[in-house]
Design brief:
By secondary structure, the chain is an alpha+beta fold. It is built from four helices and two strands.
Length: 101
């Protein structure tokens, strides 16, 4: 339940950002709670998003992990995909330690 969560890990894609339900219900609630200090939001870029055209609803400022080429998970293959996932895992653990332990 979004209203009671302490942490929201968001799998970002164009479909996610364009969903009326996500934008109006879940995302609005999560971002309001995050601004009030009631939860932590971690957006993760899983599929390509046009940072110049897509409305990120403020999620770009909350991004904890973006490599220097801003490639999404789906744009990688083989060992690069594994390295991306392992690095992201480390970043999420760091956030968990900082905010919840």
């Amino acid at each position: 339940m979004v209203a009671a969560c302490q942490l929201g890990v968001l799998a970002i894609s164009r479909s996610f950002l364009k969903s009326p339900y996500i934008r109006q219900q879940e995302l609005a609630s999560l971002l309001a709670r995050a601004q009030a200090g009631g939860c932590r939001v971690i957006p993760v870029l899983l599929k390509p998003v046009d940072f110049r055209q897509d409305d990120l609803h403020g999620l770009d400022a909350l991004q904890i992990y973006r490599d220097h080429r801003t490639k999404s998970f789906s744009e990688r293959s083989g060992e690069r995909r594994n390295a991306w996932a392992m690095s992201l895992e480390g970043q999420i653990h760091a956030v968990l330690r900082r905010y919840f332990l």
